[in-house]
Amino acid sequence: MKMETLDERAVTDIGHAFGYYDYGGEHGLIDAFPSREAAAAFIRGYVRMAFQSGMLYATSEKGEGYIAYKRPGEKIRPRSALPLARGFLGAMNPRSFFRFARIMANGGPGLDKRMDKEKKPYLFVGMVCVREPFQGKGYMRKVMDLAFSEGSRLGVPVILETDAQSKCDKYLHLGMELAGTRRFGEHGVLYDLIKYPDAMGS
Questions:
Q1: Does residue 85 belong to any structural domain of this protein?
Q2: pLDDT (0 to 100) of residue 202
Q3: What is the CATH number of the domain that holds 57?
Q4: What is the pLDDT of residues 149-178, one digit of tens each?
Q5: Each residue of 76-108: pLDDT tens digit?
Q6: Chain-wide mean pLDDT for the chain?
Q7: Residue 29 confidence class, pLDDT cut points 50, 70, 90
Q8: 3 state SS of 3
Q9: Statement: residue 187 has pLDDT above 80
Q10: Enclosing domain of residue 97
Q11: 202 within domain boundaries
Q12: Paired residues of 178 in beta bridges
């Protein structure tokens, strides 16, 4: 279901789930942020941006899981991007910001940029979250099915990127394919994943 109102408690929960994710022995791109709370603040800004852009969806009114995705041709209005900018800049001082930008530049273009260059349409998933009280209960599949169903309806692949092997494995289990990796030295790896629409197969 598309979100028509935004629950600030859910925004807080989503930020916490991302910012304080347990990477185990991995080095996720969380390390590019100055702190875990800074990462959580960035995600809270992203959620608000997605909501204002009409790109935020939930599994049900209970808000067990959330997903933000952008269809081909959809644009984020400048005004809608303000919450993300506030969350991003509020979480970092100038030195931290330039450090973050330098780290992110090292990985090269993602799958979305490569597909843009080839003029191939796709549905881009920018955020996936199952709130912590509902994790381990099958909601990850329900969240992703929202995007997969829309991708199949439109006849376009669904793509996303994630920063941990543990996360990547979950997406592979749900039927996505690994389309490439981008390495950021000691700061970890981004995994580019794709799921072709059911009509196309893969």
A1: yes
A2: 43
A3: 3.40.630.30
A4: 999 999 999 999 999 999 999 999 999 999
A5: 888 888 887 787 777 777 888 788 878 777 778
A6: 90
A7: confident
A8: coil
A9: no
A10: 8-195
A11: no
A12: 193
What percent of the chain lies above the pLDDT cut of 70?
A: 98
185 class by beta-carbon count within 10 Å (0-12 exposed, 13-18 middle, 19+ buried):
exposed
DSSP 134: G
Token duo for residue 79? 């005004």
**Look-up: residue for tokens 């041709």?**
73
| Rounded Cα–Cα distance for residues 165 and 153 (Å) | 29
The answer to whether residue 124 sits within a structural domain is: yes
Q: Report the domain count for the chain.
A: 1
* Nearest C-alpha neighbor of 127 from the set 105, 114, 144: 144
Q: Is residue 201 part of a domain?
A: no
Residues 6+ apart with CB under 8 A from 69: 55, 57, 123, 124, 125, 126, 146, 147, 150, 158
Q: Is 34 left (phi over 0), alpha (psi -120 to 50) or beta?
A: alpha
